[in-house]
Amino acid sequence: MAGDNEVNAAESKRLVPLNTWILISNFKLAYNMLRRPDGTFNRDLAEFLERKVPANSFPVDGVYSFDVVDRATSLLNRVYRPAPDNEDEWGKVELEKPLSTTEIVPVIVFFHGGSFTHSSANSAIYDTFCRRLVSICKAVVVSVNYRRSPEHRYPCAYDDGWSALKWVKSRPWLRSGKDSKVHVYLAGDSSGGNIAHHVAVRAAENGVEVLGNILLHPMFGGQKRSESEKRLDGKFFVTIQDRDWYWRAYLPQGEDRDHPACNIFGPRGKNLEGVKFPKSLVVVAGLDLVQDWQLAYVKGLQKSGHEEQRKKPIFLYPSRDNNKYVIVEAAERKHPKIGRILVVDQSTSTQFHLLQQANDIVTNPVHSQSVVLYFSQKKTSDWTSVICSCCHHQ
Fold first, then answer.
1. Is residue 77 part of a domain?
2. Mean pLDDT lowest among 96-100, 164-168, 272-276, 389-393
3. Rg of the chain over CA atoms, in angstroms?
4. For residue 241, how many C-alpha atoms fall within 13 Å in the half-sphere facing its CB?
5. Burial of 315: CB neighbours in 10 Å, binned 0-12, 13-18, 19+
6. What is the pLDDT of residues 331-347, one digit of tens each?
7. Residue 322: inside a domain, yes or no?
8. Rounded to two decimals, what is the model's pTM?
9. Which of 115, 149, 190, 389 is flagged as catalytic?
């Protein structure tokens, strides 16, 4: 049961930056208006309320974008690319110009969040995020406009993600480097992180190479209530009831939250042992009520490898709130595709040092590794810096 609304609001205002609090409060208000008790969703109102932006084939701030529809599946993808440095007066560029034949240009297939129900590839908030990724990482970003629930339930989002990956892999103009191949990474936040995992599994099972998997506070769960769900229920914008509604809207009719789409390594989940699963970065948000399920996902990755484990040194970072120290544990495994894990309770005062530490770990010579970052606040860090570290160090 959610805690007292006034107490929760006061606590969230104290811990969350004001601009973030206002933004998420507006989202919460809108989301509550759109969900109906009978499990249906007011899609027309959702489309009216959400700010969307068109693609721009003329570069803006060094990034241009265009929408492409895959004729085979009718799936729309929005492609973001860095503008060429020598473009005369920032004129119109060749949209599908081949990438570098000498330098590796990462291609990030991005799945937006929204609990499988909200947002789209042309949502202003995700358009801004993808542009920032391109600008900082010097990568190509393909944002997938997957079908949403409850109109399109499981496995539609995964099918669309798989179609998008195959489309990206088939584009000659997305090849780069001396090996002339498409260097693909999968990324997503919330439900998008969930989709990225399932698409990565399907890719591994079908022999399609994915160089890395980047999950930003991914949406996982299970039938049993975790400690973090009970502790954070209603305290920071999201309630257990909210999360349950979205799972009922996405999962097949009659299924519970132990369905493998939700509970990845649960009683009906897949064992990834022996599967050529890509290295992974998992960002766990400290105010996210499903953080325990995200950490359980990491343990599932660990169990997919060998049983032996070597502990890395413990790093200490000061907590912003009480000046105590929190433990950062990095564990390195012998599994060929699942390596190092970092869990950290982060404060804004140590953000730069944390990102530097993340960069050091991700750029470790070990080719394949799993990295987990645990943050004390839900939206404190610049994810783009960490993502870029992953994509430019293979």
1. yes
2. 389-393
3. 20
4. 12
5. middle
6. 333 333 333 344 444 33
7. no
8. 0.82
9. 190
Q: CA 367, CA 317: separation in Å to the nearest integer?
A: 27
Q: What is the CATH number of the domain that holds 86?
A: 3.40.50.1820
Which two structure tokens, joined as six digits, stand for 47? 């489309």
Contact (CB, 8 A) for 109 and 142: yes
Residue 385 lies in a domain: no
pLDDT tens string 66-125:
999 999 899 999 999 998 876 554 455 678 889 998 999 999 999 999 999 999 999 999
Q: Domain containing 208: what range?
A: 50-317
Please say if 228 is a catalytic residue. Answer: no
Q: Pinpoint the alpha helices (H) of 219-365.
A: 227-232, 240-250, 291-303, 351-362
Q: What is the pLDDT of residue 384?
A: 64
Q: Is residue 120 part of a domain?
A: yes
CA angle 308, 362, 310 (to 5 degrees): 15
DSSP 3-state of 207: coil
Q: Identify whether the C-beta of residue 106 lies closer than 8 Å to the C-beta of residue 140.
A: yes
- pLDDT greater than 60 at residue 192: yes
Task: Please tell me the total count of domains within the chain.
Answer: 1
For 361, the 3-state DSSP assignment is helix
